[in-house]
Amino acid sequence: MIRVVLPAHLKNLAHVTGEVRLEVTDPVEGAGPVTLRLVLDTLEARYPMLLGTIRDRHSGKRRAFVRFYACEEDLSNESPDAALPERVSAGEEPFIILGAMAGG
Questions:
Q1: What's the pTM?
Q2: Can you tell me the distance from the alpha carbon of 21 to that of 91, in angstroms, rounded to the nearest whole number?
Q3: Rounded-to-integer distance, Cα 96 and Cα 104, Å
Q4: How far apart are CA 54 and CA 97, in angstroms?
Q5: Which of 9, 63, 64, 88 is packed most tightly, with the most Cβ within 10 A?
Q6: In what order do the strands lie in the sheet with 66-70?
Q7: Would the pLDDT of 28 be above 90?
């Protein structure tokens, strides 16, 4: 079970409160590592209204002002196919999607 924390505007869009809990399994490998791509694919499948809000629909790249954090690390520039930290995969720590701010 993966715990996902969404920013307020995406919670409103998805009509959820609190953390989102996702059962994530790789449809090809079954018990492979939990990756960023797998978590986002599962999140968008469960909440289709989030399609295109976190990453571009065509390229799959992260939107400019969206950041990913887990275990006090910025994972925003990591490969989408890199395994997430074990504590996130085990449900001990949340995977955080954060809306970044620009300006000063």
A1: 0.88
A2: 9
A3: 23
A4: 8
A5: 88
A6: 20-22, 2-5, 95-99, 66-70, 73-74
A7: no
